[in-house]
From TrEMBL:
Family: Belongs to the glycosyltransferase 20 family.
Protein name stated in the entry: Bifunctional alpha,alpha-trehalose-phosphate synthase (UDP-forming)/trehalose-phosphatase
GO BP: any one term: trehalose biosynthetic process
GO-annotated cellular components: cytosol
Gene Ontology MF terms in the entry: alpha,alpha-trehalose-phosphate synthase (UDP-forming) activity; trehalose-phosphatase activity
Domain of life: Bacteria
Full-protein interval shown: 1 to 483 of 736
């Protein structure tokens, strides 16, 4: 049996150099955190970008970098600063990301970004070609590498290629605005199996394939010459046990073993057992709706003034893509909103919003999940949203309420949460009110169902389902060709 190669822009860790020493920090984002669990259990090779540019890497450092990555079963694709600008900050995050999240007005159509995207996709494809042999399985991930499947297929027709998109695939009306729409579709169609988080994304993709390329689509099969390509949805799960086990450890910690954050949160709980913590965790990204959430919080405090001094919103925003102007503007907007709302509502003994702009170690993430009565996750558009699933997994006593946006892919599997439209402040404020007053028995009933589902459809099952489907697709194709 051949080997498996995972390829994505991000690796499980990102490298940083300080004072000549290399440090590896865990990558954030659903792709890296999810795939890390799959990768650590097997003997696959993971190829991607280390986070450093060629200009950062001196000849003396290079072997050390290779060793640091090898410890994580990874190998690097080298990118120059100019390539990172055009490919990562440019076409990936200033063209595709906004467009696929329905922020059409943010999407920039620049030929030089496109050219760099093509060039860098070829670099990733070349890295695969150096390592792959006939019979191997290649799993390509996400919007940064949409051209890679076809680039590999052209040179190595006898490898098996799967592609998974971790973000939404937009409706045809949005996708058609992209000048390079046919090229992107043809790139992805180099795969044998194409996976999405939800059936809607799958349907949008098939509609674009039919209308833009005129290919025959029957149910979820695409015919392209003598090839048969399968498209399907595989909602990504989490490493459920990792989160629930960590939560159990958290609850049993003696005070002296607790983190400062846990101690601080506990002290607040003890001082006022009626007080409620609302939790908001995301990368600082406009698609996550953090600014809208702040406006909705202000609306809630005005509509239900009885909760002043009783509720606290904890915002953890992880720095992300800070070279892109829209992210810089958003950071400023959020800083100002937090300042304004705290300025308007704070009292001597109460600050309504605690705002952290940083990445946190896993233990602190668990502290926040386990200490929060309500998780308030309301992206304007989100491929999946794993944070929602992680929150539920840590609620080992089954209490807690999840308020989730209908626009998150995870909403399809989390009907027992309070689903809201993040643009509707009235509905959001009422959902917060309902969550605060939800009887414990009802919380437990809802969370029991959610937990069972999440424990069953975990990330391992997701990866296995994808790989099994890819294998059976290869068998179908082989039978199709020999007919
Ligand atoms: P996205 O992939 O768009 O960032 P997801 O909610 O799907 O959104 O995934 C976010 C992932 O990043 C989760 O697995 C979460 O645990 C992790 N994460 C979120 N915030 C932090 C943080 N402050 N520090 C470390 N990891 C984080
Ligand atoms: C989303 C994307 C991933 C990406 C992650 C973090 O989850 O689907 O591909 O890795 O965000 O973003 P970054 O730009 O830091 O890789």
């Amino acid at each position: 049996m051949g080997k498996t190669i995972i390829i994505s822009n991000r690796l499980p860790v990102q490298l940083q150099i300080s004072n000549g020493a290399i440090t590896a920090i865990p990558s954030v984002g659903g792709l890296a955190t999810g795939m890390k669990s799959v990768h650590s259990g097997g003997d696959s090779l993971w190829i991607g970008w280390s986070g450093l540019t060629e200009e950062d890497i001196s000849p003396e450092l290079e072997p050390k970098i290779d060793v640091a990555l090898a410890e994580h079963g990874s190998s690097k694709v080298k990118l120059t600063e100019e390539e990172v600008d055009g490919f990562y900050y440019g076409f990936s995050n200033r063209t595709i990301w906004p467009l696929f999240h329905y922020f059409l007005e943010y999407s920039e159509f620049q030929l030089d970004y496109w050219n760099t995207y093509k060039k860098v996709n070829q670099k990733f494809a070349d890295a695969i070609l150096e390592n792959a042999e006939d019979g191997d399985t290649i799993w390509v991930h996400d919007y940064q590498l949409m051209l890679v499947p076809q680039m590999v297929r052209k040179e190595r027709p006898n490898v098996s290629i799967g592609f998974f998109l971790h973000i939404p695939f937009p409706s045809f009306e949005i996708f058609r605005t992209l000048p390079w729409r046919e090229e992107l579709l043809k790139g992805v169609l180099g795969s044998d199996l194409i996976g999405f988080h939800t059936y809607d994304y799958e349907r949008h993709f098939l509609s674009s394939v039919r209308r833009l390329l005129g290919l025959e689509v029957s149910f979820n099969d695409i015919s392209m010459g003598d090839r048969l390509i399968k498209v399907d949805s595989f909602p990504m799960g989490i490493d459920y046990n990792k989160f629930s086990d960590a939560a159990k450890i958290h609850y049993n910690k003696a005070e002296s073993e607790q983190s400062e954050l846990q101690q601080r949160l506990n002290t607040h709980k003890k001082t006022d057992p009626e007080a409620k913590f609302f939790l908001s965790i995301d990368r600082l990204d406009y698609s996550k709706g953090i600014a809208k959430r702040l406006y909705a919080f202000e609306y809630f405090l005005n509509k239900y003034p009885q909760y002043k001094e009783k509720v606290r919103l904890i915002i953890l925003a992880v720095p992300s893509r800070s070279n892109v102007p829209q992210y810089q503007l958003l950071k400023r907007e959020i800083d100002e909103l937090v300042g304004r709302i705290n300025g308007e509502f704070s009292t001597v003994s109460w600050t309504p919003i605690w705002y952290f702009y940083r990445s946190m170690p896993f233990e602190n993430l668990i502290d926040l999940y386990t200490s929060s009565d309500i998780a308030w996750l309301t992206p304007l558009r989100d491929g999946m949203n794993l944070v929602a699933k992680e929150y539920i997994a840590t609620r080992t006593d089954k209490t807690g309420v999840l308020i989730l946006s209908e626009m998150a892919g995870s909403a399809n599997e989390m009907n027992e949460s309070l689903l809201i439209n993040p643009n509707n402040f009235e509905q959001t404020a009422d959902a917060l009110h309902e969550a605060i007053n939800m009887p414990v028995e009802e919380q437990k009933a809802r969370n029991s169902i959610l937990q069972k589902r999440l424990a069953r459809y975990n990330v391992e099952k997701w990866a296995n389902d994808f790989m099994t489907s890819l294998k059976s697709q290869n068998e179908r194709e082989a039978a199709n060709v020999s007919r």
